Amino acid sequence: MTKGFLIDMDGVIYSGNELIPGADTFIVELKRRKLPFLFLTNNSQRTPRDVVNKLAGLGIEAEEENVFTSAMATGWFLARQKPYGSAYVLGEGGLLTSLHENGYSLVTQDPDFVVVGEGRNFTLEMVNNAVEMILSGAKLIATNLDPSPKKKGWTNLGIKAIVSMLEEATGVKAFSVGKPSPVMMRVARKKLGLATVDTTIIGDTMDTDILGGIQVGYQTILTLTGVSKKENLHKYAFSPDLVVHGLMDLDLDEWLKDSNPAKIKAESKNGVNGVLAKLAS
Ligand SMILES: [Mg+2]
Q1: Is 10 annotated in the active site?
Q2: For the chain, does the N or the C end have fewer beta carbons within 10 angstroms?
Q3: Cα of 250 to ligand 1 centre, how many Å?
Q4: Ligand 1 centre and the CA of 95: distance in Å?
């Protein structure tokens, strides 16, 4: 069976507006080998076209069908929970587009769902409206629960912060669709037509990319070019199959050859320390 990749973007392909070295050549190599891949992002703000444009600006050629966002996963999920339902949205372009495409009406009264995505345009008044709606029975959905990195200059508040406000004000817990939710992980794989065992997720964040991959049985590669740092990996009760400094250091031949689950397991039986030892050698 063909092997394929789900690839996180922020922290793997780029950092802010900077290309991470090796990401462009890695994608070119996947295309040359005709290996299926999907860019997988929790950011719900952008449409697939926006993502393609951003990648083009960094020198990476991609098509809209190579992109899967938490906004797309949320639209897919809601259409199956309640076909042709209605939503009140705290969010922007990518999320609004996806809900529309999945047959949803965007309303300002009596919605079936309150849906929260990244955004800078909603007001406290809108948050108050959402609280009223949830207290009246609307279900609370988050496109993801990414935390803020809590560092200066970071312009994205992180949906977890917004959702916490709504949860606190209503006593209702949100359901999150994006990584690490198996909903998004599984739909992404189905989109590529891959078998679970042939799917590898590459990401920079233990709590989303790697946890999500492990929960659904994919192989996992952590890059150290983003959120998760080598010195913190021991705090997790789970380990990725492989840790690399960045995509530049990922030996595709070796990975494809190695991506026999039994072999991986044997090699990394010492957990992440074993993997790191391999990385250092
Ligand atoms: Mg990331």
Answers
A1: yes
A2: C
A3: 17
A4: 19
Name which of 230, 212, 80, 231 is nearest 146 in CA terms: 212
Q: Catalytic residue at 249?
A: no
pLDDT at residue 34 in the model = 96
Q: Which amino acid, 213?
A: G
Measured between alpha carbons, how far is 143 from 252 in angstroms, rounded to an integer?
32
Which parts of the chain are beta strand (E)?
4-8, 14-15, 18-19, 37-41, 67-69, 86-90, 105-106, 113-116, 139-142, 175-176, 199-203, 219-223, 242-244
User: Which one from 8, 24, 146, 241 is the annotated catalytic residue?
Assistant: 8
Contacts of 258 (CB under 8 A, 6+ apart): 264, 267
30 pLDDT exceeds 80?
Answer: yes
Query: In angstroms, what is the C-alpha Rg of the chain?
Result: 19
Between the CA of 108 and the centroid of ligand 1 the distance, in Å, is 32
133: part of which helix (H) or strand (E)?
helix 124-135
pLDDT tens-place string over residues 207-241: 999 999 999 999 999 999 998 999 999 999 999 99
Q: What digits encode the pLDDT tens for the residues 32-54? A: 999 999 999 999 999 999 999 99
Q: Please, what is the average pLDDT of the chain?
A: 91
